[in-house]
Amino acid sequence: MNKIFRKLEEIYIFFLPITIFGLTYPFNHGGIFSGISAYVMVVNLVLLVLLNPKKLLLKIIKSPYTALVFSYFIFMSLFMSNIIYIRFGIVRNHTSYTAVLRQIIFLVHIYITIIYNKIIIEDLKLERIFAIIRKSLFYLVSFTLLELVVINFYSDSQIKSIFVFVEKYINPVGMSTDKLIDIKKMKSLTEEPSMLGAVFSIYVLPFFLYINSNFTKIKKMIYIVLSCIILIYSKASTSMIGVILISIYIFFQNFKKLWKYSIFIIIIFLMNFTMIIKVFSPLYSKVFELKNLSSVHRYSSVYTNIKGFLDYPIFGFGWGNSGFFYLEYFPKWGFTSEESLAIYYGKKLPFTGGGITVEYITSFGIIGVIILLFILIINLKKLKNTPLNNYLKLSIFLIIVLGVVSIEITGRYYAIFLITLLLESDYINKNINSISK
User: Fold this and answer.
1) What is the pLDDT of residues 259-302, one digit of tens each?
2) In angstroms, rounded to a whole number, what is the distance separating the alpha carbons of residues 369 and 335?
3) Measured CA distances, 421 to 97, 389, 416, 426, 428 (Å)
4) Which of 57, 40, 39 is nearest to 5 (CA)?
């Protein structure tokens, strides 16, 4: 059975950033079943419960702080639901209790995923995990480059029809590939262009930058350049912000030894310059102007969440309750977005909005921020002398920044895995020799 467990764990790692064969609405709330990794995790956990429950229970017992933090989040969400219910009561047949219940399910899902990730890290060892990730990213980059070529050179040919037909059945989740190719945008093996930008910014490019095992300098540079090209030509605002932030991070991190990285810095600068010339203008209107309805929805959610947070700054208003504040604080300029209106009028429930960063801060308040900072500082300090230090610092930084308006964490298994690596700082320190520098 151990061989079956290991094989399933390897499949799980391979498909972390890929959402093929995901379930569609209404069976995929929050992206929990957005790809093969989700199914593999369920099967493996069922097998563990039936055949080796001691292993699962032992990992839960050995992770008391993880359980404590998630218990606090659940307790505070329920506690604040009482206060929100007293204030708003029943709104369009929903209460704060029904709104929070869904988010509690997501919190439990994230907790279980972290425990499962911890088991995998100990079972497979880091060197094997990174070898699988390298293979996974090779196929992801290759497929994305193929899509880029089809969009830019064969968008009116039979090749496009074949490509659309194949992707329609292997990747039904999210936006239509046919529609995206017509407007020259890519989603590759993810749900939509913004998710593609997030995967490459948070997961792919930092891996090529900082996890160097079995990579020659030339091979590493090729992957970095190809990843940057994909980010640039994906024409998603998430991609634009991701590349710029990564460039700035690398620049300041290596400020004192720029001469060693001069060629790399020049390449990144030229790529950003190219991006500014070729795609910055349309992306500027998407990110900074309120004419773009997608941006209107994101910003109106952020605005409403922050206004609600100011009413309950210490403990936040509980995860899932943000939508109730649409009744009082929804901005006039937000009425141009159909998606925001659906939340405002109760057609899209339960109430949620904004990216994970804003949701987290407004849901759990100043106390939640202190907890997050404590976890980050303690674990990053432990990883300071490991090869994972810069990799996780950059990835977590990008999750936080991109999570202000667009990036969710529920169902984003690659992001939860990165967070688990951070939480496993003690294990990584003890097994530092298993990671090739």
Assistant:
1) 555 555 555 555 555 554 444 445 545 554 555 556 676 777 88
2) 31
3) 33, 10, 9, 10, 8
4) 40
Amino acid 388 reads L
**Opening angle at CA 426, ends 423 and 428, nearest 5:** 90
Q: Quote the CA–CA distance of 304 and 314 in Å, as a whole number.
A: 17
pTM: 0.86
Task: Give the span between the Cα atoms of 348 and 340, in whole angstroms.
Answer: 9
Q: Please check whether residue 193 is in contact with residue 385, taking contact to mean a CB–CB distance below 8 angstroms.
A: no
Report the 10 Å Cβ neighbour count for 44.
21
Distance separating alpha carbons of residues 351 and 337, to the nearest angstrom: 16
Q: pLDDT tens, 159-211?
A: 777 777 777 777 766 666 666 666 667 788 887 787 888 898 899 988 988 88
Q: Helix H segments across 200-317?
A: 205-210, 217-233, 237-253, 262-275, 281-288, 293-311
Q: Quick check: helix, strand or coil at residue 136?
A: helix
CA 281 to CA 374: how far, in whole Å? 39
Beta-carbon count within 10 A of 291 CB: 10
Instruction: Look at the chain and count its residues.
Output: 437
Instruction: Indicate the SS3 state at residue 94.
Output: strand
